Structures are given as C-alpha cells and as structure tokens.
C-alpha cells in the first residue's frame, strides 16, 4: 500500500457498554511521516480513537489498517506503536534510564541489557535528557518528564507514535517551547504521529494536518489554514479562531440578506462562493472579528460597550440583536468605550450557514 | 511571643501529661525495678543480680530462642502469603470489598476468642485440621499436647492472625498504583510475572517496610496467642514459652518483678536494635 494511507481508519464506531455512542462512523487516513492533530472539545471522542488505534479499546465496528494491514485483532504489543500518556505514567521507582529502557527489557523480544542501554541512550540524546539518566522522575520538571515519556515511547522504534494531550500538564510558556521540540523531534525521527489536543492553537502550530471532531463525528479533515478560510460548517467556524467568530441572525428575502440594522445585496456577494442555490428564509451570517472593521461608510452602526487589549490588537465588544459581537482593531485605533461607530464587513470573507449548521456561502 | 509560648504549653499539656504518666514513667519504672528485688510492696536495691539470674536461667534463653524463631519464621511467611493473597484478590477476584471485609474480620476479633476456636481446630483427636490431614492421608501431629510441636503450632496460628491486617494494608497499596503503569507495560508486551516483579513489588516496598517493622515488633511481643492456644499455659512443660510470656510468668506467677523487669529491658533493647537495623536496611533498598 502507498505511503499516503499509512494509517487508515474505516467506518469506525464505538459504543460503550453504558450505551454512550462515543464514535459514529469515522473514517480518515494519515500520510507516512505526517504529524496529525486530533482536535476537539472534551468528550468529542478523540482520546477514544487514540485508544482504539493503540488497541487499548476495541471498536464496535469498522476497521483500522496500519501500512495496509488490518490491526483490529492485533494485540497492542504487536502493533508497533509508541504511546505517550497525558500524565506520562513514568515509573517512579525507576531512574530515567531504566524508564526509557523498560520497553526493551520486557516481553518476548527483550534485548540484552547492554544493547537495550545503547538504544535507550541514543533516544535519550535525541530527547536531550542524557544528563538526567540517573535521576528519578519525581526530581524532574514537567518538561523533562515529558521528554522522558517521549523517549520511552520512541525507544522501541515504533512505526506510529500516539500522544494523548501530552502538553496539558505544562505551564503556558513551557507548552510553546515543548510543542516546537516535539515537532522537530518527531520530524527528525520521521515517525508518523497522531497527537490529541483540545487546544486549537497547539493543533494549528504543530500539525501537518488537523482532524476536528465533535460528538464522535469528523467535522473537518484539512490543512490548518482551511479551518480559518474554509470552515466546513457552523461548528468549525465557531470552534476555530480566537477571538471567536461573530454570528448574526439574518433573513434572506427579496434578493437581500437582512439583519437588525444592516442589509446586504445578494448580488454584491461573490457568486462563486455559493455552495448551492439558497431559498429565502433564516440563515446565520458569520464573520471573523478581523474582517468586520470600523469604517466611515460602514453599514452597521454600533455602540462600543467594552474594549479588551490582547497584545498588539484590541477587541471592541458591542451588542447586536441581543448577542455580543466583536471587532478586532489595531492597538492605536482612536476608539474609546462608549463611542458610537460604524462597522463594515469584508463581503468576500463572510460565511452563511443554515440554522442547522450547513455552510452555504 | 511569651504569651504564645504559654498557650502552646497549655495545648500540649494533656498529651504531655498523658504520655509522661502512661508511657515514660512505666518505662523508667521498669528500668529502675530491674535493679531491685523483693515483692512489689517491698523492693530493695540488688544491683545487677536480676540480670545475672536472667542470663543463667535456661527458661529465659528458651523464651528468647522461641521468640526469635517465631519472628524469623512467621513474619516472612506471613508477609509472603499476604502479598500473594492480596495480589490474587486485587487482580483476579470480583467483589473485592466482600473479600476484603472477610479477610479483615479476624483483625477486629479478639485473639483470645480466635485462639479458643483454634484450640478446637488444632485438637489432636477430633480437631478439624487433623480431620482434613487424615482425609488426605497425611500424618496428623498432636498439635497442642506434644511439647515438640508447641512452637510450630504457635507459628501457624501467628501467620494466620497476621494475614488480616497485612492484606488490608497491601490492598490499599495495590489500589494506589497508577493503573496506567500496567497499561504501559501491556503495551510493550510485559508478562504477568514481569509486571509483578518490575512494577508491583517495587511500588509496594514502602508499604512492605512498614508492615515488616510492625510485624517484627508484634512478633517479639507475642503472648496472647500462646495464652489462648494453651489455655493459659505456655504449652506442655513451658515448651512454647515466649519472651513476654516469661515476663508475665515471672511477674504474676512466680512473684519476682525485678527479674520480669530485667527481662523487659532486655526485650526492649532487642526490639530497638532490630528495628534500627531494619530501618537501615530498608533505607538501603529504597536508595537502589
């Protein structure tokens, strides 16, 4: 089989014993050597998928292929995977070296101690923890423990590396540093990696590709930038992006899209972006705060309720039709709380969704 | 600062008074009495004569020998069986809490009561144990009434009574081991034995150190089970006498409190020394 489908998941379903349907018909594939992020809110099924891939859980139905071969009936130890747990699960009574060596000195294919030590030392060097060899895990910082866990996952030379929220126990600054390190490390080793996270920023920064889940269903399986530029549906548009996207209730009627205080001629929109003919009726118009900006000739008059500073930019907060919305402006824009201003949206950057979330523009 | 100090002493006072009267004073008193002879109401200084008597008394040496044998045999075997049972209950048995409660019951039952029941179980003629042994065509010894079997009987009983406490504590320790440790091990194909020796045992070391200390101290103070098993005696012809039984006998029956206290001091020093040795040993194991 080709390298394009090194990991292939087909029609995967998982229903837990209590009847909870964690995964509903999920299919995706991962290219050899890629780092793919499984992204989604808590309880969306992403960790369940990782555990099924690892063999810690068995699927209710569906198939998983590694390098073209079905592994659904293969025991975890024979799947050639490395797994990094969320809390690392390092053995507290073993030194760093013993922890990293562990996968090599147990099981049927265990290696002689000297050989195992040599391999372990190679991966400890890669993970930059050689000087910690004799330390116990409880003497290490979170970042160091993280590296030990990764070295232990890689030491068996697996074909696939699975990581379950590996950065969630680290503080914000360290997280930025470690995620870059993880990316360069797995790229250096060339291992195919699946990385579970609930942090979109993390996913966007390290993933070659992102698969966004919600409610046990794939919402979008795409390159990072497309989640911004071409969201598949209302959920994706609202999940990705910070500050979150603005949503306005609109009505299409008489060749116009009308909301409280503003209207847009359908003819002014980019006709190529329509996914299909849309009948008159209720829709949701969404626009990212950076694409709705103060303008003398803007069609939407608003009253600035609050201003939040986020580094280089400021978020103007205003109320429209009972809901809060935002505009992202430059730090030096001369606008104060309480000002009445006019806003203009970039019509080629707005999205239209049906009330049940389908994107039509 | 001054008032704070006063308040601190006030709060500490109940404990200090309690400990002084019920722990420190008896220890000092025992130490002093070990250099005195006569009856309790008429003591006089006699120097080291109690100790001289003690070291020449063959019964004292038998008591020490029995106690040491009892500790050295019953504690390791008891602990090993406890680990095995705890591990089986923990990893193989459903309804763990039921078994845990069952195993803990002997601990909350009086040793005297259990000892009396065991006297019937151990009975040479109509005891349950010998009934089973005869059914299996094994030799059925005279557990209670044969002087050469006394210590063996005490040891078997001691092992049995030590299980309850050990198992419950070990179950708690097993429950505290992160289940992911085993998931990781499974992932790399570790066998059941490898998981036990490489993960479970090292994780249990601190608990085992605690249990070993408690068990050894308990074993050196063994008395109640002897009393219950042999109906207030120390076996036929005192064959099953132990250090504390010797002390009790010299104090209560023979009426030589000085000798009893000298034996107490010796036993105290032995336990102190062994505990100290054990701590050193465990520290070494912990470091590796």
Quickly list its features.
heterodimer, A: 361 residues, alpha+beta, Rossmann fold, OB fold (Dihydrolipoamide Acetyltransferase, E2P), 2 domains, six-stranded mixed β-sheet, five-stranded antiparallel β-sheet, 8 helices, 23% helix, 34% strand, elongated, B: 288 residues, mainly alpha, MetI-like fold, two-stranded antiparallel ribbon, 12 helices, ABC_transporter_permease (chain B), membrane (chain B), MetI-like (chain B), Sugar ABC transporter permease (chain B)
Tell me what the structure shows:
Chain A: InterPro entries: AAA+_ATPase, ABC_transporter-like_ATP-bd, ABC_transporter-like_CS, ABC_transpr_FbpC, ABC_transpr_MalK/UgpC-like, Mo/tungstate-bd_C_term_dom, NA-bd_OB-fold, P-loop_NTPase. Chain A: GO terms for molecular function: ABC-type ferric iron transporter activity; ATP binding; ATP hydrolysis activity. Chain A: Keywords: ATP-binding, Cell membrane, Membrane, Nucleotide-binding, Translocase, Transport. The complex is a heterodimer of chains A (361) and B (288). In chain A, 23% of the residues lie in helices and 34% in strands. Chain A has 361 residues and is an alpha+beta fold. Chain A folds into two domains: 3-238, P-loop containing nucleotide triphosphate hydrolases (Rossmann fold), CATH 3.40.50; 244-353, Nucleic acid-binding proteins (OB fold (Dihydrolipoamide Acetyltransferase, E2P), Beta Barrel). In chain A, β9 (209-214) and β10 (217-222) form a beta hairpin. In chain A, α2 crosses α3 (113-126) and α2 packs parallel to α4. The longest helix of chain A has 18 residues, at 172-189. Chain A is elongated. Chain B has a two-stranded antiparallel ribbon. The mean pLDDT of chain B is 88. Chain B has one domain (54-287): Orthogonal Bundle (MetI-like fold). Chain B is built from twelve helices and two strands, in the order αββααααααααααα. The two termini of chain B are 46 Å apart. In chain B, α4 (96-108) crosses α7 (150-175), α7 crosses α9 and α9 packs antiparallel against α12 (257-287). By secondary structure, chain B is an all-alpha fold. The chains are: A alpha+beta (361), B mainly alpha (288). The A-B interface holds A 54, 56, 75-78, 81, 83, 85, 87, 89, 91-94, 102-103, 106-109, 156 and B 178, 180-181, 183-191, 194, 198-199, 202-203, 205.
